[in-house]
Automatic annotation (TrEMBL):
GO molecular function, one term: acetyl-CoA C-acyltransferase activity
Keyword annotations: Acyltransferase, Transferase
Similarity section: Belongs to the thiolase-like superfamily. Thiolase family.
Name by which UniProt lists this protein: Acetyl-CoA acetyltransferase
Domain Thiolase C-terminal: 277-393
Keyword Acyltransferase: yes
Active site: C90, H351, C381
Native species: Desulfocicer vacuolatum DSM 3385
Transferase among keywords: yes
Amino acid sequence: MFKNVFVPYKGYWSSPFSKWQGSFQNENAVDLAAATTKKFFELRGYKAEHFDGIVFGSTIPQREWFYDAPNFATQIGNPDISGPRIAQACATSTVSMNYAAGCIELGSHKNLLVATTDRTSNCANLIWPNPQGPGGRPYFESWMLDSFAWDPCADTSPVQTAENVAKEHGFTREQSDALAVNRYNKYLDALADDRAFQKRYMIPVEIKISKKKSILVEGDEGIMPSTPEGLARLKTQPDCILTFGAQTHPADGNAGMVVTSRERARDFSADNAVEIQILSYGYARTKKAHMPAAPTPAAKMAMENAGIKVSDLAAVKTHNPFSVNDLAMSKLLGVDDKIFNNYGSSMIFGHPQGSTTMRLLVELIEELVILGGGYGLLAGCAAGDTGAALIVKVN
């Protein structure tokens, strides 16, 4: 699908992810992403003028959001460029990478910076005009909380879409709890040796508490330990299998990646012995109210477009807001757990929506580098029973 779309080795980053109402709760997500990007430039030796455009992924309004993409470009030091804002809930980063890949493939841009960010904390609370309301009383919408509670496409809550998939495939509470513990233990591998894996890509973030005081956030905040005993004590709704321990949590953070040609990737790379290629994209919309099933057909399309099979994959990373996501993909695609969501996944470290799958892609690339190369699959679901996926190859 893509022939000349590459990523420089170490041409990517992620901030720590902070559970909502944590250290990032009062930071404008656009400003925080710009500050983190500038640190990334300093560490990797990039300059803002290297880029002839950006792709900005963000889904939650911040103050002055009307200007977010050009404002971001200006803050990082290149006021001569801009680009589109892309928003597709938790598939935003995957869709943003596909857009950037198309621009590079077609030659409309030479070097693109894909930057993604969101802050679920202290989300926007909106007032919508309602001339027919009593006395003109307006409609009220809490951007995040109302979206978590109801999907107008599915006519139910996102959690219920997961329960629907569980019932369709006969998944049990025991399977759900076991997968949650498994994913937590895999996240612990990323913390081993003083967070050696995360330090391969994660940029610490400095937050000013006052004029005289600041804190440095170096790792993820708000991660809840997961044990069989702890999960067993949690309750579910009647005739349901999912507990809070088998779901993700909203978070704040940002992540990004450089997308360019093979030749320019070599110029930007931290090690020319490592070559990273974006091969293909896939998308899907599964049947109504079955959102966690959507990553599987999206993954199938991405693999077909890349000309590979599940047996060719060396690593798989998924946005798994529910344990059911991975249970379904494992059953339907036959993904070996040995290659499935190693070093963590969004069910454990949270989802800031816009930057969720970007961090997963960064971790996927680093895992493939550790393995000595191979094909990797990134897949995830998003609002409205949608899914998106990418295939990446590391040589």
